C-alpha cells in the first residue's frame, strides 16, 4: 500500500489528486492537504471582480467530491516537510496546521511515500507598501473573496461617475517582479467593457500599469502571432487593442509604494513617477508559500528542497546564466526534486530555472521584468504527467518518471476575456507553441507559427464561457470528467 500526499487543491493539486485516484487501485491512499474548503476556478475571478459573476459560480466545495471519489481530505495548511523522517517518525511526513473553523489547531503529521507540492503562490502584497486589499489601498482578483471586494469598489467608482465625477482607474502589476500579466490585461478590458455598459466610459481615465517593457510581452518574451494571413508581434496585436479601447499604458514600471489615491513607481529609465487613482487593482508578486524542510536529526534542510524564492527545486538547470545562454532544456520535464526522489512539485509551486522574458533592470538596479507565468493549462498538464508517473512507479510499470511535460515542449491556449455578455462579450484568444521559446529550432520568433495564432472577437468570449463550465464540470468530478482535456 502506498500513500500519495498532495499539498494544495488548486488547478495542479486537484488535477493530480483526481488522476491518481482514478489510476490507482483503492488499497493505495490519495490524500490532499489544503487550507481552504473550496476549489477556486481562478480564471473566472476576473468576471467576479467586475460584478458579472457570483462568487458561488467560481468555487466548488472539496469535501463532498473527495468523499465520493475516495480521496482523503485534510483541511490544513502544510508548514514543514520531513523527507527523511526522524527517530520518532521513521518514514517521510509533512506537518500541517488544521484550518477548519472551530476545530483543533494543533499541528498534525501526515505520512507519505510520495509527495506532490502543488501549493501555488504566496501572494506577496507585503513586498510593496500600501499594496493589496488587506490593510493596503488597492484591490486584487487573486482569490474569489478579493474579487468580490474589487467588484464592490469598482461599482462604487461607477456610481461616482454616474453622479458626474471623473475617475481614474489603474489596473496592472503592483511590483516590478510580478507575473500573471495576462490576468491584469484581461481585467483591464473587462473593466473597460463595464464602463461602456454603464454609459460612463467618457468619465473614466483607464490606465494599464505594467512591468512589461512592451505591451504583449505577457511574461513569455512576447510572441509573433499569425492572424488573418499576417505575422504580427504581440506588441502590435495588444497595442491595437489598447488604441481601439483608449486605454493608456505605463510600461516598464516598478511600483514602489501606494498611498491613498497615489501610486509611486520607477520606470526602466530609473525615473520616479506618480500616478493618481480612484480605483486600483494591482496584482502582487509571488513567492513559494514558505514551507520549511528538516532532516532526520531536526537540522534545517530547506535549501535542498526549496530555491530562495520558496518554490520547490525540481529537475531544472538552475545554473545562473545570461539571457543569451538560456536553453529550452533548462526547463524541467519530470518536476522531481533532485535530492528527494519521491518529492515532486507542479503548477506555480515548482521553481523555474529563470524568467522567459528578457530580464531588465533600471540604472538604479531595480529589477523590472515579468516572472515566468505558469498558467492553468500547463499547470494541469504537468500535474497529470506527474500523477501518472507516480502511479506507474507505484504499480511497478516504471522505475523512473517516463512521461515528460516540459514547458519548452508544450503549447498553451490563452483566452483573455475582454468583456462579459453573451452577444456583447469579447475576448483575445491566443495559442502558442511552445510556451518557452526555442530560437534554435524556430529562428526569429522562437515558436512554431503553425500553432501560434490569435484572434479577437465574440467567439473567444464564448470559448472562455464554455471553458468555465467545462473545467468546473471536471473539477466537480462529474461523469466522464477525465475526458475533459487539460
Ligand atoms: C486573476 C487571475 C486570473 C487568471 N486567469 C487565467 C486564465 O484565464 N487562464 C489560465 O490558464 N490561467 C490563469 N491564471 C493563472 C492560474 O490561475 C494559475 O496558473 C493556476 O491557478 C496555478 O495552479 P496551482 O495549482 O499551481 O496554484 P493555485 O491554483 O493557486 O492552487 C494552490 C493551492 O494550494 C493551496 N495552498 C496554499 N498554501 C498551502 C499550504 N501551506 N499547504 C497546503 N496547501 C496550500 C491553496 O489553497 C490552493 O488550493 C490566472 C491567475 C489569476 C491570479
Describe what you observe in this structure.
- This protein is α/β, with parallel strands linked by helices and 486 residues long.
- It has a domain at 3-123 and 286-363 and 370-407: FAD/NAD(P)-binding domain (3-Layer(bba) Sandwich).
- It has nine helices and 24 strands.
- Strands 1, 2, 5, 6, 7, 8, 20 and 21 form an eight-stranded mixed sheet that branches. The chain has a four-stranded parallel sheet with strand order 14-11-10-18, with helices on one face. It has a three-stranded antiparallel sheet with strand order 15-16-17, with no helix packed on it.
- β1 (3-7), α1 and β2 form a beta-alpha-beta unit.
- The longest helix has 19 residues, at 144-162.
- The protein starts with a strand and ends in an 11-residue tail after the last helix.
- The mean pLDDT is 95.
- Flavin-adenine dinucleotide is lined by residues 7-13, 33-36, 42-43, 45-46, 77-78, 118-120, 141-142, 180, 183, 289, 347-349, 374-377, 379.
- Residues 7-13, 33-36, 42-43, 45-46, 77-78, 118-120, 141-142, 180, 183, 289, 347-349, 374-377, 379 line the site of flavin-adenine dinucleotide.
Q: Which terms summarize this structure?
A:
486 residues, FAD/NAD(P)-binding domain, four-stranded parallel β-sheet, eight-stranded mixed β-sheet, 9 helices, 24 strands, binds flavin-adenine dinucleotide, alpha/beta
Amino acid at each position: 500500500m502506498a500513500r500519495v500526499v498532495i499539498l494544495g487543491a488548486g488547478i495542479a493539486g486537484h488535477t493530480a489528486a483526481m488522476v491518481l485516484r482514478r489510476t490507482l487501485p483503492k488499497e493505495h491512499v490519495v490524500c490532499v492537504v489544503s487550507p481552504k474548503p473550496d476549489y477556486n476556478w481562478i480564471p473566472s475571478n476576473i468576471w467576479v471582480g467586475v460584478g458579472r459573476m457570483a462568487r458561488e459560480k467560481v468555487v466548488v466545495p472539496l469535501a463532498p467530491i473527495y468523499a465520493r471519489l475516495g480521496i482523503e481530505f485534510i483541511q490544513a495548511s502544510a508548514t514543514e516537510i520531513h523527507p527523511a523522517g526522524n527517530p520518532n517518525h521513521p518514514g517521510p511526513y509533512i506537518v500541517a496546521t488544521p484550518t477548519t473553523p472551530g476545530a483543533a489547531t494543533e499541528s498534525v503529521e501526515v505520512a507519505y511515500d510520495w509527495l506532490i507540492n502543488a501549493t501555488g503562490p504566496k501572494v506577496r502584497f507585503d513586498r510593496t507598501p500600501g499594496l493589496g486589499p488587506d490593510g493596503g489601498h488597492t484591490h486584487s482578483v487573486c482569490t474569489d473573496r478579493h474579487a468580490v471586494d474589487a467588484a464592490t469598489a469598482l461599482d462604487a467608482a461607477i456610481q461616482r461617475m454616474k453622479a458626474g465625477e471623473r475617475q481614474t482607474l489603474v489596473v496592472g502589476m503592483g511590483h516590478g517582479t510580478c507575473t500573471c500579466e495576462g490576468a491584469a490585461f484581461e481585467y483591464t478590458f473587462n473593466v473597460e467593457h463595464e464602463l461602456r455598459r454603464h454609459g460612463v466610459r467618457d468619465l473614466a481615465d483607464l490606465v494599464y500599469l505594467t512591468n512589461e517593457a512592451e505591451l504583449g510581452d505577457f511574461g513569455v518574451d512576447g510572441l509573433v502571432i499569425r492572424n488573418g494571413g499576417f505575422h504580427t508581434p504581440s506588441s502590435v496585436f495588444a497595442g491595437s487593442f489598447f488604441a481601439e479601447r483608449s486605454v493608456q499604458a505605463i510600461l516598464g514600471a516598478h511600483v514602489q509604494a501606494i498611498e491613498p489615491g497615489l501610486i509611486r513607481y520607477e520606470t526602466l529609465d530609473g525615473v520616479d513617477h506618480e500616478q493618481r487613482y480612484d480605483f486600483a487593482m494591482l496584482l502582487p508578486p509571488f513567492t513559494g508559500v514558505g514551507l520549511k524542510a528538516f532532516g532526520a536529526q531536526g537540522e534545517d534542510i530547506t535549501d535542498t528542497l526549496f530555491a530562495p524564492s520558496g518554490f520547490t527545486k525540481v529537475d531544472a538547470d538552475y545554473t545562473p546564466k545570461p539571457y543569451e545562454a538560456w536553453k529550452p532544456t533548462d526547463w524541467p520535464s519530470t518536476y522531481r526534486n533532485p535530492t528527494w526522489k519521491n518529492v515532486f512539485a507542479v503548477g506555480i509551486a515548482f521553481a523555474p530555472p529563470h524568467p522567459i522574458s528578457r530580464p531588465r533592470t533600471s540604472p538604479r538596479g531595480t529589477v523590472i521584468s515579468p516572472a515566468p507565468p505558469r498558467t492553468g493549462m500547463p499547470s494541469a498538464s504537468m500535474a497529470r504527467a506527474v500523477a501518472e508517473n507516480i502511479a506507474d512507479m507505484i504499480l511497478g510499470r516504471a522505475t523512473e518518471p517516463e512521461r515528460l511535460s516540459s514547458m519548452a515542449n508544450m503549447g498553451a491556449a490563452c483566452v483573455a476575456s475582454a468583456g462579459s455578455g453573451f452577444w456583447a462579450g469579447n475576448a483575445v484568444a491566443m495559442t502558442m507553441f511552445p510556451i518557452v521559446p526555442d530560437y534554435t529550432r524556430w529562428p526569429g520568433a522562437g515558436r512554431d507559427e503553425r500553432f501560434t495564432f490569435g484572434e479577437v472577437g465574440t467567439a473567444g468570449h464564448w470559448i472562455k464561457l464554455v471553458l468555465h463550465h467545462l473545467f468546473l464540470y471536471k473539477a466537480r468530478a462529474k461523469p466522464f470528467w477525465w475526458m475533459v482535456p487539460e
